[in-house]
């Protein structure tokens, strides 16, 4: 198996309504996003062309989030909810017989990030709670 990743940056504002602290106030971040696929190369030797992945992520995600107010797009836009939203937008578009979306990572700051790997993670959370 091979893992293919591409990173993106977008700027956006949000506030966390259900949070008590400074993040309940309107503020912004320069977010970093990493999209990772897992799969096998095709006859051209690629899991997916980086140019095509960039186009798809810009079209489906970055164009909607960049320089926008995330609360109007994603309910309670924590890093976790942003990662799940990105996953839900991209997963059906990236999956084929050779590859699938493996994980989505969202950084709010240089050292604070979340990684989401799809609905299997939710089963883990349910078993703990």
UniProtKB/TrEMBL annotation:
Pfam families tied to this protein: PTPS
Pathway: Purine metabolism; 7-cyano-7-deazaguanine biosynthesis
Keywords (A to Z) from UniProt: Lyase, Metal-binding, Queuosine biosynthesis, Zinc
Residues binding Zn(2+), per UniProt: 14, 27, 29
Cofactor(s) in the UniProt record: Zn(2+)
Signal peptide: none
Any one biological process term the GO annotation gives: tRNA queuosine(34) biosynthetic process
Annotated catalysed reactions: 7,8-dihydroneopterin 3'-triphosphate + H2O = 6-carboxy-5,6,7,8-tetrahydropterin + triphosphate + acetaldehyde + 2 H(+)
Gene3D superfamilies: 6-pyruvoyl tetrahydropterin synthase/QueD
GO molecular function: 6-carboxytetrahydropterin synthase activity; metal ion binding
Keyword set includes Transcription regulation: no
Active site residues per record: 23, 67, 108
Listed EC numbers: 4.-.-.-
Record note on cofactor: Binds 1 zinc ion per subunit.
UniProt xrefs under SUPFAM superfamilies: Tetrahydrobiopterin biosynthesis enzymes-like
Family named by the database record: Belongs to the PTPS family. QueD subfamily.
Protein name in the entry: 6-carboxy-5,6,7,8-tetrahydropterin synthase
Species, as recorded: Pseudothermotoga hypogea
């Amino acid at each position: 198996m091979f893992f293919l990743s591409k990173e993106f940056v977008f700027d956006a504002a949000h506030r966390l309504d259900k949070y008590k602290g400074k993040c309940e106030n309107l503020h912004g971040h320069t977010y970093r996003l990493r999209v990772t696929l897992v799969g096998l190369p095709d006859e051209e030797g690629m899991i997916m062309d980086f140019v095509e992945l960039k186009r798809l992520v810009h079209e489906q995600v970055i164009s909607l989030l960049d320089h926008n107010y995330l609360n109007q797009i994603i309910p309670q836009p924590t890093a976790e909810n942003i990662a799940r939203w990105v996953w839900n937008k991209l997963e059906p578009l990236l999956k084929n017989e050779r590859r699938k979306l493996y994980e989505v990572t969202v950084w709010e700051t240089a050292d604070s990030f979340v990684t989401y790997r799809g609905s299997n993670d939710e089963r883990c959370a349910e078993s703990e709670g």
